[in-house]
């Protein structure tokens, strides 16, 4: 899936970290979300990946929204 075509891409920068949100097409033609965290620490560059598949996206989105609402309400 590393070379899956991108259907949509956006990014968010946060200091030394950049988050990439890519919607890609799996081999079965179903879309999935690939979240990449890229971090630069001196000359070292680290990347972490998270794939969220079509069958999981609703539960993932709900849990993420709950976490964001909790953080925002605790400010």
Entry summary:
The protein has 75 residues and is of the alpha+beta class. It has one helix spanning 57-73, and strands at residues 6-14, 17-25, 31-41, 44-53. The protein is flat and about 40 Å long.
| N/C terminus separation | 39 Å
Low-confidence stretches: none
Number of DSSP helices? 1
Helix-residue proportion? 10-25%
Total number of domains = 1
Sequence of secondary-structure elements: EEEEH
The largest pleated sheet is described as: 4 strands, antiparallel
Mean of residue pLDDT values: 93
Task: Output the CATH class name.
Answer: Alpha Beta
Cα-based radius of gyration, to the nearest Å: 14 Å
- Decide which structural class fits the backbone: alpha+beta
General form? flat
Q: How would you characterize this protein structure?
A:
This protein is an alpha+beta fold. It has one domain (6-73): Roll (Nuclear Transport Factor 2, Chain: A). Helices cover 23% and strands 52% of the residues. It is built from 1 helix and 4 strands; from the N terminus they run ββββα. The protein has one helix spanning 57-73, and strands at 6-14, 17-25, 31-41, 44-53. It has a 4-stranded antiparallel sheet, with no helix packed on it. A hairpin with a 2-residue loop joins strand 1 (6-14) and strand 2. The longest helix has 17 residues, at 57-73. The radius of gyration is 14 Å and the shape is flat.
């Amino acid at each position: 899936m590393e070379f899956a075509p991108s259907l949509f891409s956006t990014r968010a920068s946060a200091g030394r970290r950049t988050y990439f949100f890519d919607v890609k097409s799996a081999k079965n033609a179903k879309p999935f979300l690939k979240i990449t965290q890229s971090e630069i620490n001196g000359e070292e560059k680290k990347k972490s990946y998270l794939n969220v598949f079509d069958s999981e996206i609703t539960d993932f989105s709900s849990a993420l929204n709950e976490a964001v609402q909790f953080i925002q309400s605790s400010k």
